[in-house]
Automatic annotation (TrEMBL):
<keyword id="KW-0597">Phosphoprotein</keyword>
<keyword id="KW-0963">Cytoplasm</keyword>
<dbReference type="GO" id="GO:0007018">
    <property type="term" value="P:microtubule-based movement"/>
</dbReference>
<keyword id="KW-0493">Microtubule</keyword>
<keyword id="KW-0505">Motor protein</keyword>
<feature type="binding site">
    <location>
        <begin position="114"/>
        <end position="121"/>
    </location>
    <ligand>
        <name>ATP</name>
    </ligand>
</feature>
<dbReference type="GO" id="GO:0007052">
    <property type="term" value="P:mitotic spindle organization"/>
</dbReference>
<keyword id="KW-0547">Nucleotide-binding</keyword>
<keyword id="KW-0067">ATP-binding</keyword>
<comment type="similarity">
    <text>Belongs to the TRAFAC class myosin-kinesin ATPase superfamily. Kinesin family.</text>
</comment>
<protein>
    <recommendedName>
        <fullName>Kinesin-like protein</fullName>
    </recommendedName>
</protein>
<dbReference type="GO" id="GO:0008017">
    <property type="term" value="F:microtubule binding"/>
</dbReference>
<dbReference type="GO" id="GO:0005874">
    <property type="term" value="C:microtubule"/>
</dbReference>
<dbReference type="GO" id="GO:0003777">
    <property type="term" value="F:microtubule motor activity"/>
</dbReference>
<feature type="domain" description="Kinesin motor">
    <location>
        <begin position="30"/>
        <end position="366"/>
    </location>
</feature>
<keyword id="KW-0206">Cytoskeleton</keyword>
<dbReference type="GO" id="GO:0051231">
    <property type="term" value="P:spindle elongation"/>
</dbReference>
Amino acid sequence: MEVRNGETFQCSIGNLPQTLGERTKGMETPIQVVLRIRPMNQAELRRGEQSVLHCSGPRTLRVSPLGGGREVAFHFSMVLDGARTQDEVFQGSGVQRLVELALQGFSCTAFTFGQTGSGKTYTLTGPPPQGEGETVPSSLTGLMQRSFACLLDKIQHVGTPITLSASYLEIYNEQVRDLLSRGPHHYLPVRWNKTRGFYVEKLKAVKFGTFEEVMKLLLEGLRRRRSSAHNLNEVSSRSHALFTIHIQCPAVSPSRPKEQTFGKLCFVDLAGSEKVAATRSRGELMLEASNINRSLLALGHCISLLLDPRQKKNHIPYRDSKLTRLLADSLGGSGITLMVACVSPSAQSLPETLNTLRYASRAQRVTTRPMPKG
Ligand code: ADP
Ligand code: MG
């Protein structure tokens, strides 16, 4: 399909990966988990809170509850403390490996997980712009902007012409909304078929070729996310946002068209993982909370089944939520998934921090990569 930059076409977000198991076998685990501790914020400093999290070595976190509770240790691919810069997080997270694999035709996903206020959005895109038209200083840009630059740089060194396009969607209350669509917004269905895997019907993908063009798409979607009607109650912390770059590499030899590859690089800003108190959860809030819990639980459930060697790998319940359907090919198929677990160092956040740490340490034990089925 011929599309010029800035034009749109319908795409599948869930292109099935090729049979890639062999190509990455033994090279890396399918889910890498990095922990990022944000610095204390002003409110925590004013309250005189103490940090209960301590790094001992580059991969180990010690949690020392105040008041003499038992110290617990957690191990991750990398632990990044509050003094780490955005660039150090980019270098340390291994996201550049995802960019490389996506260019080879794999489906790769980076997602941030943690309670609201723990630094998920900051890690992906940096601090929010201060005013209309303001941009984030380059030293503070997040994993997404840095990965875009890395991808475009790598492409310059590849001899063949590569087609890039981006799609951006939000899952709110189990409904999928296109963040790049200008018209009146309606919800799009998630479907499955043998050739495409799970995909969002009528989702727009916009072709781009430069850093400025892809940034324009990101900012357009972020603005649409912030200004939607239900955003009045900060829905962005209760919705999942998926920004996907589709990478189409042509066959080197026209006589062997099967060599064409379709890679995918997806960034997911997950909804806050905190439990919503039952007393606050009435009506719409209750529905929201149960949908968030449902999708994060479904994600955790799929991950723990992938972990279980006795589990039949073709029975992973990806269908349990829209989120797991759309992440099925990176979780269970091929490529790698990077999870950045975000936590606050404060004692007050400890119960939620422990939930995040347990969820994250379960995730990194996934050792198999079965292909997802519908
Ligand atoms: P979340 O997306 O998890 O709800 P945010 O990314 O919005 O959380 O972060 C909450 C606040 O903390 C924001 O004001 C953000 O700019 C700030 N923040 C988060 N992480 C860091 C960090 N590593 N360094 C400085 N400020 C941070
Ligand atoms: Mg956020």
